[in-house]
Amino acid sequence: MSEVASFRRLGSTLCKTRQFYILLLLLIACSVFYYLGEIVTFSGAAKSFFNGVHDVHRLLFIVPIIYSGYFFRIRGALIVTIAALAIFMPRALLISPFPDPVLRPVLFCLVAGTVGALTGLARNTFERSQQLEAIARSDRDKLLGGLENMEDGIVIIGPDYRVRFQNPSMAREFGEGIGSYCYAYLHQLGGPCSDNCQLKTVIQGATKRWEYSHPNGRTYEVVASPIVDSDRVVCLLAVYRNISHFKRIEQELVNINQLKSELLSNISHELKSPLTSIKGIVTSLLQKDIQLDNDTREMLLDGVNEETDRLGSLVTNLLNMSKLEAGGWKPEKEPCYIADIVDEVLKHQKWVHMNHIFRADLEPDLPEIQADYGQIRQVLINLLENATAYSEEGAEINIRARVVDKDIEVSVSDHGVGIPSDELSKVFGKFYRGTQKRRDHGGAGLGLAICQAVIHSHQGRIWAESILGKGSTFYFTLPIDHVDYD
Ligand code: ADP
Fold it and tell me: What radius of gyration, in Å, describes the C-alpha atoms of the chain?
């Protein structure tokens, strides 16, 4: 680096020396031409044109004066002007036959000196502006070099709405846009964005921040400030940060909060209504002044029994869900038969829901499976409870089981209200409650979510089919082959 600098210095010194000699030659040539008449007369020749029109001869000195102004700037022009005046003086004082012989050379020197000095000044100004431009360009290049590698999108927009610069991230997010109009590039518009356009405000010196949703669905935080480009035009530099991810998280947090409030109010309601019924029934039973016959007493006790079951089922689902959330409800596999689980669950359900008709249709000799007996029983209970809750009393509920490929497929069908097709995939979501009404007013939207979690943890599949107003069938599969669940 220092060698290059010293070569440059040597080069400029040599150049200056050359220009100095050229200037000297110019001055000598002008002086010889100025005194040519005297030289010719001195050598014995007769007087000629050269002895007379010295004003014209003098004009020639403008060349070395401008030359010195151009190369040696103001000081050079002044020195050469003074030298020229010194050259003019012998003739003015000793030889000139005209009146006022000093005035005209002095006037010439004033004019020529001013022209020379102006030439120097113009050259100085031009060079300084070039230097400033070079500094600005190198600053811009440095800045843009840094911006190239930034993860955020950077764009520079001129006052003519044209995109002057974009970094690779910007090109990735919005595509290539250099030379395009910002409103077309960023907003797919045919003209400037009327009231929302921040370009003018920013160019006038303000820094602005706003959020921008691109038609591609992404959300950006934009910070725009003024920047002077290398051509000294004030432009807008905007940083586009993709905040879609944060927006999604923000929305999820809002949803979670909403869900939490809904859940709390839902669960409080679900817990309170059976408790209120139980309290009412027990109060009636305890009233000594009212004689209850056996049938009424039995009916009231049945009521307590049903409400207690409802409470039990809700609390079981809540406990199971919290175990699932905490990851502590892993299946404890053991060899078992799906027919045994169906038998046990049906016995209980038939007793609890006496007004429904349960029919089991199980393929004979269903193979043994490895499953968590308690968890699969809970799945069947949840599906059967839903089947009774969403169908009229007296309706038939069917449980089928068969071998399909390497799985056992179990299904629970009812002839109830059915599920709209757009809800079929949502019903397995946590706390999801559909539009259809339960007969028994219970439910917290957890039953099917638990079923899904259990079946998935057994490497099975679960899904629903339904015809609105006709009934629903819930299917799940369990693999027959031994599967390691850990
Ligand atoms: P819930 O406690 O609300 O019954 P679930 O998770 O068991 O919660 O069910 C979620 C939703 O799926 C219910 O709110 C209901 O809309 C719908 N659903 C479940 N089973 C049935 C069914 N057999 N018939 C009609 N809709 C059902």
Answer: 50
pLDDT single digits (tens) 243-269: 999 988 998 899 888 877 777 777 787
Distance 386 CA to ligand 1 centre (A): 6
Ligand 1 atom having least distance to the Cα of 444:
2
How far, in Å, from the CA of 338 to the mean position of ligand 1? 23
Q: How many residues can be counted in the chain?
A: 486
| Confidence at residue 486, expressed as pLDDT on a 0 to 100 scale | 46
CA nearest ligand 1 atom 4, residue: 443
Euclidean distance between CA atoms 32 and 39, whole angstroms? 8
Rounded to the nearest whole angstrom, what is the distance from the C-alpha of residue 412 to the centroid of ligand 1? 13
Say how many Å lie between the CA of residue 280 and the centre of ligand 1.
28
Q: Ligand 1: which residues within 6 Å by Cβ? A: 386-387, 390, 414, 416-417, 419, 427, 432-434, 436, 438, 443-449, 472
Residue 21's identity, in one-letter code, is Y
DSSP string, 64-118: HHHHHHHHHHHHHHHHHHHHHHHHHHHIIIII--SSSTTHHHHHHHHHHHHHHHH
pLDDT surpassing 90 at residue 445 = no
Q: Letter for the amino acid at 410? A: V
CA-closest candidate to residue 248, choices 212, 217, 214, 288: 217
**Residue 176 and residue 22: Cα distance in Å, rounded?**
54
At 5, the pLDDT band (50, 70, 90 cuts) reads low
The one-character DSSP state at 477 is E
Measured in degrees and rounded to the nearest 5, phi and psi for residue 411 equal -135, 150
β-partners of residue 212 are 220
Tokens 């020529």 -> residue: 112
Q: How many Å apart are CA 188 and CA 181, to the nearest integer? A: 10
- The b-or-e profile of 361-391 (16+ CB within 10 A means b, else e) is ebeeebeebbbbbebbbbbbbbbbbbbbbbb
How big, in percent rounded to 5, are the helix, strand and coil portions of the chain? 55, 15, 30
Segment (H or E) for 398? strand 396-404
Choose which residue among 262, 320, 383, 390 to substitute to test ligand 1 binding: the one with the highest number of ligand atoms within 8 A of its C-beta.
390
Read off the DSSP letter of residue 362.
E
